[in-house]
Amino acid sequence: MYKILNTVEEDAAQKRDDVYAGKSYSEKEKNREMHCYRSHTCGELRKGNVGEFVRLSGWIHNRRDHGGVLFIDLRDHYGITQVVIYPDRMFQKTIAHLAKETVIRFDGMLANRSDENINSKLPTGEVEVVAESYDILGAAELVPFSIFPEDPAPEDMRLEYRFLDLRRGKLHENILLRSKIIAYMRRAMTDMGFNEFQTPILTSSSPEGARDFLVPSRLHPGKFYALPQAPQQFKQLLMIAGFDRYFQIAPCFRDEDARADRSPGEFYQLDIEMSFVTQEDVFEAVEKLLEGLFNEFTEWKFDKAPFKRIPYREAMLKYGTDKPDLRIPVEIQDVSQNFLKSGFKIFADTVSGGGVARAIAVRGIAGKPRSFFDGMVEFAQSIGSQGLAYLVWNEGNVKGPIAKFLDEQSMTDLTKKLDAKTGDVVFFVCNDEAKANKIAGEIRVKLGKDLDMIEQNAYRFCWITDFPMFEYNEELRKIDFSHNPFSMPQGGMEALTQKDPLEIYAYQYDIVCNGIELSSGAIRNHRPDIMYKAFEIAGYSREQVDEKFGAMIKALSFGAPPHGGIAPGVDRIIMLLANEPNLREVTAFPMNQRAQDLMMNAPCEVTEKQLRELHIRSTEIKA
Fold first, then answer.
1. Sign of the torsion formed by the C-alpha atoms of 124, 125, 127 and 130
2. How confident is the model at residue 476 (pLDDT cuts 50, 70, 90)?
3. In 10 A of CB 446, how many CB atoms?
4. CA torsion 505→507→513→517, rounded to 10°?
5. 467 near 506, Cβ under 8 Å?
6. H helices within 305-366, ranges in order?
7. Angle at 369 between CA 367 and CA 373, to 5 degrees
8. Alpha helices in 324-423 (DSSP H)
9. Which of 592, 594, 572, 591 has the alpha carbon at shortest distance from 583?
C-alpha cells in the first residue's frame, strides 16, 4: 500500500477501493483480448459497461484537480470520457503536469459517477474510468491557441496550425457533417439512376471564364495543361457518348479572389448532366435531391418542391439582384412613371433620360428616429448612390425630404401605387437601370438586417430563370453573350434569325437559397448550326468558333442528344446547413484570402533544376 499523505487521499483511496470491491483482476484478465490501444472509443461507454475493465486512448482535452483527485477529460474522434486518478496512484502527479493535447492511453475499471458529478451534456456523462495505469503515446508541446475552451484565435494562426484547429469541437463537427452530406448526395444520385464518372484533372486551357491554373508540360516544352474550371465539356461529351445520367463530386480550380462564399483556388461541386431532358426535368431532379438533403440534415424550415420560379428580369426589379434572399418580406417596385412628370426635377430628368425610379416600401416604421434615416442615407451613398430619398406617411400627411417637390396628384398616385398607409416609410432610388437595381437591392438587404425582418431558422429556395441570351457591351460597343454562350436559346434558330438579340432568352437557370447562389445550369445548345449562329450574333466568325471550341463542335456533329445539367456547389450547401458564414469553416484545409496555404507553405519557390526540367524560367517583376 502506498504511503497516504493526508485524510483527503485516504478518503479518495477508499472510494477507489469501493469501485473494486469484490473484484479481483489478474494482469492476464485485464489484458484478455484487449487491443493494444483501446477496448472502446471515448464516446462509447455507458452505464451498461460499469464494472468492465477498459482501455481508452485519446487526447487530454481538459483536467481538473478536486481535493487531490485528478479528473481528465479524454477526447477522441467519437467523444469525451472522464478519467479519474486517485492520489494513491504514483503516476497522478506525472499526469497532472502533462500538457493538454498529449495523446495518452489509460487502463482501468469503468464506474458510475456520483450523482453530483453526472454531466448530462455528455453521452458518457454518467460514467468514469478509474485509472489503474497509463502510457504516453504522443507528447505535446504547448499549443499556440486554446483547443478547449475554443477561444477566438487569429485566422492566419488557425490556418497555419489547421491540424490543431480541426481538433476544436465546432470545426470537427462541420467536417464530419461535410462527409455525411457528400455521402448522402452520392446515395441520392445513385438512387435516381445517375452514374458517377471521373473526368480529367489535367486538360486544356479555356479561352473563356475565369483565370486558369496552368501546369507546364515537361514532355512538351512551351506547352501547358490547365486544371479544369469545371468538367463542363467532358460531361457534355459523356452525354454525346451515350451515357444518359452522369454525376460527380468534382474538384474545380479557378484562379479567383476569395470571398466568404467562394474559396480561392479550388472548390467542389455536385456536377450533373442528363440526356433527353427539358429544363423542368433538371429542376425536378435537383429539387428531389435538395428536399431530401435538407430534410435529413436540418431542423429548420425549408421550402418543399416545387421551388418558386422567378424570371431574371422580375428578380432584378423586385429584389435588385439575381440572388434574392426571400426571407426578407420586402419587394422593390418600379415608380418611374410616377416621377416622369412630377415636380421632382432630379428624378424626372433621370427617368426621361432612360433611367428608372425604384421604391422600397417598409410597413410600420414611421416612428424610427431621425438617426435611422440619416444612417440609411449614408449607407446609400457608400454603395454608389448620390443620396436616398424617402417619404413618411403620418396621420393625415406625408413628410420627407422630397415631399415639397410633389404636387397633390403625384402624391395621391404614389400612395395608391405603393398602397402606403399611416406608419409606412418608402425609400426611393433613381439612376440608370443597372445601378438602380444594385443600389435598391443592397438597401433592401440592409433594411432586412437593421429592422430584424429576416426570417429566422429558415431556408428559402428559388429558381431564377429566363436569363437574357445576349447583352450590349458598352465598352466594346457590340452585342455579347450575357451568361453562358453554350446554352440553347429559347426559340432555337427561329429566335436567332427573327428576334432582336436583346429580347432573346436562354434556357439558363440558377438555384438560390437565402441570397446565396448554389448553382448555375442550362439546357445545352446541342446543334452546331444554332451554335454558329449564336456566336455570329456575338461577333465570332465560323473559323474562330472552330479554333476555340473545335472539340465540342466536332462532337456535336456526330449526333448529339438534347441534354442539360447543373452543378450545385457542395461547399456552399454545407455552409448553409452548418449555419456558417464562411466556407473556411466547412473545409478541412482551406487557403487564406490571399490564396496561400500557410500550413504547407504553398505556393512556394521551386529549384532551378525543376524549372529547367519544365523548360521555363522564373523572372522577378519589379513594381
1. positive
2. confident
3. 17
4. -80
5. yes
6. 312-319, 336-340, 345-352
7. 105
8. 336-340, 345-352, 370-382, 408-418
9. 572
Reading the block at residue 368, the C-alpha cell is: 424610427
Q: Phi and psi at residue 378, in whole multiples of 5°?
A: -60, -40
**Contact, 252 vs 228, CB < 8 A?**
yes
Q: Which three cell numbers stand for residue 150?
A: 475554443
Distance of CA 480 to the CA centre of its chain: 31
Locate all alpha helices (DSSP H) within 451-541, ordered by sequence. 492-498, 528-537
Set of cell numbers at residue 497: 434569325
Cell numbers of 501, please?
438579340
Beta strand 308-311 with 461-465: parallel, antiparallel or unpaired?
A: parallel
3-state secondary structure of 184: helix
Residue with C-alpha cell 404614389? 414
> Rounded to an integer, what distance in angstroms lies between the CA atom of residue 185 and that of residue 519?
15
- CA angle in degrees (0–180, nearest 5) for 257-258-262: 120
Q: pLDDT category, 445, cuts 50, 70, 90?
A: very high
Whether 523 shows a pLDDT value over 70: the answer reads yes
The pLDDT value recorded for residue 4 is 34
Residue 31 pairs in a beta bridge with none
Banded model confidence at residue 261, pLDDT cuts 50, 70, 90: confident
As a whole number of angstroms, the distance between CA 111 and CA 256 comes to 56
Contacts of 190 (CB under 8 A, 6+ apart): 196
What 3 state SS string does 225-236 have? EECCCCCHHHHH
CA angle 443, 444, 450 (to 5 degrees): 80
The per-residue pLDDT for range 105-150, each reduced to its tens digit, is 999 999 999 999 999 999 999 999 999 999 999 999 999 999 999 9
Q: What is the mean pLDDT of residues 270-293?
A: 98
Strands of 397-399's sheet, edge to edge?
332-334, 356-362, 425-431, 389-394, 397-399
Give the global pTM.
0.91
Of the candidates 76, 54, 78, the one whose C-alpha atom is nearest the C-alpha of residue 130 is 54
**390 near 428, Cβ under 8 Å?**
yes
Kindly report the backbone phi and psi dihedral angles of residue 273, in degrees, each rounded to the nearest multiple of 5, phi listed first.
-145, 145
Q: What residues pair up with 103 in beta bridges, in sequence order? A: 59, 138
Grid coordinates representing 351? 427617368
- All residues at 6 or more sequence positions from 96 whose CB lies less than 8 Å from its CB, including other chains: 63, 65, 70
Residue 619 is placed in which grid cell?
A: 523572372
